[in-house]
Design brief:
The chain has helices at about 30-40, 65-80, 95-105, 130-140, 150-155, 160-170, 215-230, 235-250, and strands at about 15-20, 45-55, 60-65, 85-90, 110-115, 145, 175-180, 190-195, 200-205. By secondary structure, the chain is of the alpha/beta class.
């Protein structure tokens, strides 16, 4: 895949404002955002929502940052850097969710891409009990794209199958939903993009062996980086899947648990 930065040598890198937690192992969270958006040719401006104690095997604890500090950071970065996309990953608390919702309402011209991080790869919860309901009420209806895996979609839309769940999110106001099939028991991973008034767009990928820490962050962030440059959602989604599959295929097992995607790659078609 061509590095998109090469075609825009004389253009400033588009800025993506990221709200994510900090993973000290560098597999997921804010480091995944920085690496993937950079690989896509963008620049990640970062507001860290929470500090976590985790490794490649499990989450031990986390602590949300001061909401007032987070809002001040975001307001100053938006005024100075003029981002074109907001990417949201781990939120972790109602107070932080409220701050992000306020920022999104204050800057409605910015595209919003949400990776609804509700648990770690090992299954540990990353949000309060009724957080899912508030996420669906406050942020998803104003989003450009939401990228849940099948488990996350089930939590957002309990009792509904994949197509019906995606339809419910779109009916709430969300422009598009990319459902990833990494958590399903199947030989291939099938990811499907749903948009109102258009047929579903599915892409099938051979399932890689092993487990990976930060694959969802990688996908959503690369999509955000491409979309910031092109405003072409379908292109961003297809390129994001290819980049994620490539980075997982080159992942390293740096710890004793899940492998870490190698996001610092350049894939040339």
């Amino acid at each position: 895949m061509e590095n998109r930065l090469s075609s825009q040598i004389n253009q400033p890198r588009p800025v993506v404002l990221c709200f994510s937690g900090h993973d000290p192992g560098g597999g997921a969270g804010i480091q995944a955002d920085i690496e993937a958006i950079g690989a896509a040719g963008g620049h990640a401006a970062t507001c860290i929502t929470a500090l976590t104690d985790q490794d490649s095997q499990r989450l031990y604890s986390y602590q949300s940052v001061d909401p007032a500090l987070l809002k001040a950071q975001a307001d100053h970065i938006i005024a100075d850097f003029k981002p074109v996309v907001i990417k949201v990953g781990m939120v972790g608390s109602h107070a932080i969710l409220a701050v992000i919702a306020d920022i999104v309402r204050a800057y409605p011209d910015l595209a919003l891409i949400i990776d609804p991080v509700l648990s770690t790869g090992g299954g540990a919860a990353l949000s309060e009990s009724d957080f899912v309901t508030q996420l669906a009420k406050q942020l998803i209806p104003v989003s450009t794209l939401v990228t849940p895996n099948s488990d996350e979609l089930s939590r957002l839309c309990p009792g509904l199958d994949q197509a019906a769940g995606a339809a419910r999110l779109i009916e709430s106001g969300c422009s598009a939903v990319l459902v990833t099939g990494t958590h399903l028991d199947s030989d291939d991973v099938v990811n499907t993009l749903y948009r109102q008034g258009q047929p579903p767009l599915s892409k099938r990928w051979p399932r890689l062996s092993g487990e990976y820490h930060g694959s969802g962050c990688t996908l959503a962030s690369y999509i955000a980086g491409v979309f910031a440059q092109t405003r072409n959602l379908e292109m961003a989604v297809l390129q994001g899947q290819q980049y994620t599959w490539d980075s997982l295929g080159m992942a390293d097992r740096l710890g004793e648990g899940q492998s870490i995607p190698n996001r610092l790659i350049r894939v040339v078609k």
